[in-house]
Amino acid sequence: MAVEIKYVVVREGQEKMAFASKKDADAYDKMLDLAEVLGEWLQQSPLTLEEGQNDTLAMWMAENKDLLAGVLKNGKLPEPQLNPAEPETEATEAEQAPAAEDNVSEHPGRKRTKAA
Question: What does the pLDDT look like over 7-29, one tens digit per residue?
């Protein structure tokens, strides 16, 4: 029989999420605290959101607190990061045409050199 330790984040009697490490559970609990405060703050804004949008926006802001802090500090949006799963839209000429040296077969005992 295996013994497994779970750290469970509970809010208002409901299990929100379970984690394998205490550090992750504490970080999630802290994020939920921040989302709650942000939700209360958003309710004070002059903008009226539909039911549920306030909580969704507050949770999104809490999940992205580091980016939000950077935007507030620098006054600029961060550079978009390329998703490694997405192929680049434009390939350079070197990527489109195979190099002549690519035709040389690999041999474990020889060093690969450029042909003259």
Answer: 999 888 888 899 999 999 999 99
d(CA 74, CA 51): 32
For residue 40, which of 15, 62, 24 has the smallest C-alpha distance? 62
Domain boundaries, the chain: 26-74
Tell me 99's DSSP state. P
* Tens of pLDDT, residues 32-57: 999 999 999 998 989 888 888 999 99
- For 33-97, the DSSP string reads HHHHHHHHHHHTSSPPPPTTHHHHHHHHHHHTHHHHHHHHHHSSPPPPPPPTTSPPS---HHHHS
